[in-house]
UniProtKB/TrEMBL annotation, chain A:
One of its GO terms (cellular component) is ATP-binding cassette (ABC) transporter complex. Keywords: Antibiotic resistance, Cell membrane, Membrane, Transmembrane, Transmembrane helix, Transport. GO terms for biological process: response to antibiotic. It is found in: Cell membrane; Membrane. It comes from the Bacteria. InterPro entries: ABC-2_transporter, ABC2_TM, ABC2_TM_bact-type, ABC_2_transport. It is a multi-pass membrane protein. It comes from Umezawaea endophytica. One of its GO terms (molecular function) is ABC-type transporter activity. Belongs to the ABC-2 integral membrane protein family. This is Transport permease protein. Signal peptide: none annotated.
TrEMBL record, chain B:
InterPro entries: AAA+_ATPase, ABC_transporter-like_ATP-bd, ABC_transporter-like_CS, ABC_transporter_ATP-binding, P-loop_NTPase. Keywords: Antibiotic resistance, ATP-binding, Cell membrane, Membrane, Nucleotide-binding, Translocase, Transport. One of its GO terms (cellular component) is plasma membrane. This is ABC transporter ATP-binding protein. It is found in: Cell membrane. The keyword ATP-binding applies. Belongs to the ABC transporter superfamily. One of its GO terms (biological process) is response to antibiotic. Residues 8-234 form the ABC transporter domain. It comes from the Bacteria. SMART domains: AAA (SM00382).
Amino acid sequence: MRAFSSLSLAMFKASYRDKAALFFTFMFPLMFLIVFSLLSGVKLGSEVEIAVVGDSRVVAALKNSEGVNLQEFKDSTTAINSLRDGNVAAIVVSQGDSIDVRYANGDRAETGPALAKISDAVASANLGAGTTPPKFAVRQKPIEETAFEPIQYLTPGILSWGVSTAAVFSSALTLVAWRRKQVLRRIQLAPIGRGSVLSSRLLLAIVIALLQAALFVAVATLPVFGLQLSNQWWLAIPLLILGTLAFFSVGMLLGAVCRTEDSVTGAANLAVLPMALLAGSFFPIDKAPDWVKLITNALPLRHMNEGMLDVLVRGKGLEALIVPGSVLIGFTLVISTLAAVFFRWEDK
Amino acid sequence: MTADGPAIVVSDIRKSYGDLRAVDGVSFTVAEGEFFGLLGPNGAGKSTTLEIVEGLRKPDSGSVRILGESPWPRNPKLLPKLGVQLQASSFFERLTSKEQLQTFGSLYGVSRSAAVDMLELVGLTDKADVQDVDLSGGQRQRLSIACALAHDPEIVFLDEPTAALDPQARRNLWDVLRAIQARGKTIVYTTHHLDEAEILCDRVAIVDKGRIMAMGPPAWLVRKLDAQTQVIVEHGTVTADVARTLPGADNVVDDGVSIIIATNDAGLTIKALGELDALNKAQVRTATLEDVFLHLTGRAYRE
């Protein structure tokens, strides 16, 4: 136990002192988030567009709200078209005392802020009317499934990529450096279980992945990016751990096969970057040809992406973890077995 | 368990890589507390021999006993008694000297403070909070030896600890090695500096082409060679012709700076030179391990 805690402490210290790697691990995914957000046309920090049909105290209250731009429509059909086109985030239809709120499903970036503004407006209208029960009853209803806003899609994808790339690179580079510098031999010559060494390194990888996720999601939920987290977001934690295990084992395999830090860096790039593109971490691959989709289904990152999307954004429950979880566990078993086969204590 | 027995017994070990016989029937015994050197040029088989003794490699044949135990296959009972220093860069990344020792110590279940004591032994107390990359070559080498000692082993293996060090750093390291021996440790080390082994080792084995060519205390090996001693006096103190008539003198060379007298009886020759009052700035050069090596292999040590 002393060996495990002491080794873990040493690795955490070393990792904290490696400022370049820290930057690569934590800031790089954030840079990608900004770049891809801009490329995908996320409206950063703009006013919320709300369509109104009819007039009521609620509409009047909305007019007085900060950061809301109202567009008036004569009938709900044209308003819904505008919603479908993404020109407005929500529609408020007033008929007497009943207020119908329509919105594109909960995945759009502006939907949350728009609904919040509307509910504020309703509350203030009810307050003004001073009646109990409240005068204005609100019925909220999403229109049919629509495409995600880019931020909803980008966050799980870039996060999965960031976690996988950090896990692959750090484990691969550590293994190669330790073998080349004969630290592995020193470990081999010490009366310590190899499990302690491996598990302390793995603990570091998992903690880093969770920190990456916490920072990344925290930034993505800032109003300027506008990520809407589902209530089930914490289901991402087991997925992050399984993903780290899978990509840690990829790093161990690459580290076992490659001799030098340079070659293992190249190999890791070759493994992670095409996989991230094919797995749809940065761009949706829905429009890709079927044979490409077939390939992507064989990629663990694809399943991690999907799982993260399901639990972080789509609000799916535990059942959404079954497929990605099994794929990642199976992948981990196969790759770590291969890594064990190719493992060498020293260069020869 | 073998308090009075030898620390290490190596019997006829052999190891081939393809056609290359890296170790070709090596046997030696090291007593407890002894400073034993494996000498020879690069590629002689010293390192492979050491690795087999440490238990890192399985010999094709032959046996090794350390404190009565076999180091192969990996013997966890024996490992805490062995301290192995590898190359000077065998450190964990980005840890200070103190942290390196604590971490290596922890691999053996040693308390954090005990491990740090080794810094003093190798004279790095003032570098406790410096990372390995910021140490000089000699300091790194001393740290790597300290790491090998972190768990207070009985037997210490050092592979070329003084290679790639400047003369000053080498001499500093000699003091460290002597201090380790003074603590009662058994030391087995390899070097290709024959002069250094002559100064440090109780006993040496001269290795070439996977075999031990000669083994014993350095002084004994040199004396056994029965080589001529060179007595060198300043040019002009005596003439070459006079020098040739001196008792014991064999071959005399006048190189314009010195008269170099090769003698079979240095005592007699020097006495006669003294009587001629010709010993001003005289030098005596005796045979060294390098001469032993030349004699054994028929080729000069430095190729």
